[in-house]
Amino acid sequence: MIRKVRKLTLVLTALLTSACVSHQGQLGRNDNATRQRVDASVVRDVVYTPADWPQSLAADLYLPTDAGPFPAVVMIHGGGWKSRTRSDMDSMSHSLAQRGYVVMNVSYRLAPQWRFPAQLQDIQQAVLWLRANATKYHVKASQIAMWGYSAGAHLAALVAVTGPGDREFVEGARVQALVAGGTPVDLRYYKEGPLTNGLMGVA
Question: Please, which contacts does 191-197 make with residues 24 or more away whose CB atoms are closer than 8 Å?
C-alpha cells in the first residue's frame, strides 16, 4: 500500500504542477516533489453541504502541520455508488496529508435512494466548500485534484471533465488534476448491471 501511495502521489504531483504551466510552456517549481514527510492532523465530520441541501453530508479533513499553503485533494470512496463509507479512504488520505496535501475525504448520497446526478452535485459542493475555506485550511485554491477508486473514480472523473456548456456545470467546481483507479467510464457497457441501473434509476 505504501508503495502504491508513493507512485500515485508522484502522478498527482506531476498533474498538479503541469496544471500550472505558464504561457511560455515552463513548468513551475515543484515544491511537493522534494517535501519531507510531515505530521498531519484530522478534523472529522465537517459538514460541507449548504443548509438547504437534500441531505446533510460531511467530510474528514486531513491537514499537514506545516505552514502551507498546500495543494488539495478531494478523496472519494467506492462501493458501487450504493455502499461503503469514506472511512475506506482514511489510510490513503492520511498518507497524502503527510506528503503535503490537504485532503478532503467526503461522503456523498448513495443510490438507489438518490439517483444520478445527485452524487456528482455532492462532489461539486465539496470542491466549492474547499475553495470557500481555502484560507482557513491553508489550501492553494488554484491547485485542487480529485482522487477516487471504482465508483469514486467515476464521480471524480465526472467532476474533472464537466465544463461550461454541460448541463451539470457549476462555476467554481472545476479542478486541476485527476487520479482515478478502476474507473467505470462508459456506463453503456453495464446496461444490465444492477449497480448502474440503481444509480440511473432504471427499473
Answer: 195/80, 195/81, 195/82, 195/111, 195/151
d(CA 70, CA 137): 9
82: cell is: 450504493
- Round to whole Å and give the CA distance between 130 and 133: 5
Length of the chain counted residue by residue: 203
How open is the CA angle 120-91-121, to the nearest 5 degrees?
A: 10
Measured over all CA atoms, what is the biggest interatomic distance in the chain, rounded to whole angstroms? 53
- How many helices and strands, by DSSP H and E, does the chain display? 5, 6
Please indicate, yes or no, whether the overall pTM of this predicted structure exceeds 0.85: no
The answer to whether 153 touches 182, Cβ cutoff 8 Å, is yes
Residue 141: how many CA atoms within 13 Å on its side-chain side?
12
73 conformational bin, left if phi > 0, alpha if psi -120 to 50, beta if neither: beta
103-147: per-residue pLDDT in tens? 999 999 999 999 999 999 999 999 999 999 999 999 999 999 999
Phi, psi of 8 (to 5 degrees): -70, -35
The residues, any chain, with a CB within 8 Å of residue 104's CB and separated by 6 or more, are 48, 59, 60, 61, 62, 72, 73, 74, 75, 126, 129, 130
pLDDT bracket for residue 12 (50, 70, 90): low
